[in-house]
Amino acid sequence: MTAHWGLIPSWSKDASRASNAINARVESIAEKPSFKSALRSRRCLIPANGYYEWATELGPYPPKQPFYISHKDSSLLPMAGLFEYWKDPETGQMITSASIITRESVGSIATIHHRMPVMLPKDRWSMWLSSTSLSEAQVPEYLDLLETPDPEAGLQFHPVAPLVNNARNSGQELSAPITLGEPETLF
Q1: What is the pLDDT along the chain (187 residues), one digit of tens a residue?
Q2: Which of 24, 27, 57, 67 has a CA positioned 20 to 30 A from the CA of residue 186?
């Protein structure tokens, strides 16, 4: 299935909500109106070779420095996600849209950014992807699937050039490692 980036709730009057829903916080997906229905009926995996994150002022890197995060063995990252169907009231076109579920970052990833995608281990895929429509009582069991013992296991990261900051740029060169200079300080 192909989906547009940024979940558009089925009840939305227009697609403008998608720009605000590219990520779904695991801590609130069961309560947030934008994600609640999708959690119960439309769960997915979003495979990726890697993802980009920009350093925040919380870590040792220059703020807004882009990093590429991937698996050490180059395997795909199975990111837990939600999807939704939305019908455009003006054109009647049916649009499928999706969001990645995120969690608090841990370990070395936390030195870059405070959030990270939830990577779902293979032994949890079939249950997560089941077409079962969840009852209120089943929701906690599915949220427990998203709690993994070692969320950063196998991940690696490196700084990349700011070319990634422009959506017009694409290609493998965007994930090529660069060397950062010495930290700039006043002392």
Answers
A1: 899 999 999 999 888 866 778 999 999 999 999 999 999 999 999 999 999 999 987 778 888 999 999 999 999 999 999 999 999 999 999 999 999 999 999 999 999 999 999 999 999 999 999 988 999 999 999 999 999 989 999 999 999 999 999 989 999 999 999 998 765 554 4
A2: 67
CA distance 156 to 158: 7
CATH T-level topology, domain 4-175: hypothetical protein yedk fold (3.90.1680)
The whole-angstrom distance between residue 138's C-alpha and the CA centroid of its chain comes to 23
Q: Where are the beta strands (DSSP E) in the chain?
A: 4-5, 23-25, 43-48, 50-54, 66-71, 77-87, 94-104, 115-117, 155-159
Contacts 24+ apart (CB under 8 A), 10-13: 10/37, 10/84, 10/85, 10/86, 10/87, 12/86, 13/89
Query: Which two structure tokens, joined as six digits, stand for 135?
Result: 């009852």
Q: Which of 170, 45, 54 is nearest to 116 (CA)?
A: 54
Please answer whether residues 7 and 83 qualify as being in contact, where contact means their C-beta atoms are separated by less than 8 angstroms: yes
pTM: 0.91
